Amino acid sequence: MAEETTPTGVTDSAAVLDIDEEGVVDGATRRQVQREQFKLLLKSPGFLIGFSIFMFWVVASFFPGWFTTVDPKEFTPQLDIPPGSDAWFGTDKLGRDVFSRVIFGARPIMIVAPLAAGLAVIAGTLLGLAAGYYRGWFDEIVSRIAEALLSTPAILLAILIVVTFGSTDPVIIGTVAVLFTPPVYRTVRAAALSESRLDYVTSAKMRGESSLFIIAREILPNVIGVTVVEFTVRLGYAIFTVATLAFLGIKAGNATDADWGIDVSATWERIVSGSWWPTIFPALAIASLVIAVNLIADSIEEALSS
Asked: Among residues 216, 199, 191, which one has the least CA distance to residue 20?
């Protein structure tokens, strides 16, 4: 069989994996391919750099005391001190240590964004698999709803939902998950459509396997790489969205709590007066996290398509 490529750019698994006489993918062959892809991933400089940065922020979010013992809410007489030996990232206009606020500020975004991205991938994958396999009226209804959501600017819809239902973390997590479910659905649906037309799925139907069995045991393992890539991509978007909501001041919490988006919003106007460090360092933290996630996503996609 000639090698085919799905709309997502991932090499068609049926062209890579061995299929036995009944059309069932050889599990040992699949595991061998996955091991080879994992080895390629570990050799990728982009993945290693991105993963290292990402893990730094994960550790900082859960164990901030490992990096600083300064209370991020502590007010001191040292107002607007530039970066130096006394304060690595300087202090803000209230005398709070900027380095401490950057480290402690990782926690809110590293809790909300991954949960939102994970929910979006789970929902999008389930809907995409069902629509790609069953097609028909279910596919039409879900696809039209997805198109309607995709046609609306994400941040405007997020603001509308959060303002309506409240700015608590559960509402923000649910909102971001709803916003990113449609693109995940569209990608997984395309991959599932491609897989459902292949011989191994036809053979499973002829053997009398149930639809649930075919989706869960035949199609899902061959599109799992797509879902992994989608999670890393949507995680980057989720980080930006959560930070934007915090910047706009529609995120619940104490205004004195360390949060990258809130800190950028509270200090950006002072850049013109020369006090750039309270804004730049939280902004760089957001950028570094998003870049790290994108490096991981690109490396995973490259390993899967090799």
From this structure: 199
Q: Report yes or no on 2 lying in a domain.
A: no
| Residue 5 domain flag | no
Tell me how many domains the chain contains.
1
For the question of whether the overall pTM of this predicted structure is more than 0.70, the answer is yes
Q: Which of 21-25, 69-73, 248-252 has the lowest mean pLDDT?
A: 21-25
Residue pair 106/260 in contact (Cβ under 8 Å)? The answer is: yes
Q: What is the pLDDT of residues 3-38, one digit of tens each?
A: 333 334 333 433 333 444 344 445 566 667 667 777
Q: How far apart are CA 161 and CA 177, in angstroms?
A: 12
- Report the candidate in 124, 122, 162 with the shortest Cα–Cα distance to residue 145: 124
Nearest residue to 180 (alpha-carbon basis) of 246, 233, 112, 110? 233
Q: How far apart are CA 124 and CA 145, in angstroms?
A: 12
150-159 per-position pLDDT tens digit: 888 888 888 8
Average pLDDT, stretch 290-305? 87
Identify the CATH number of the domain in which residue 20 sits. Answer: 1.10.3720.10
Q: What is the chain's length? A: 306
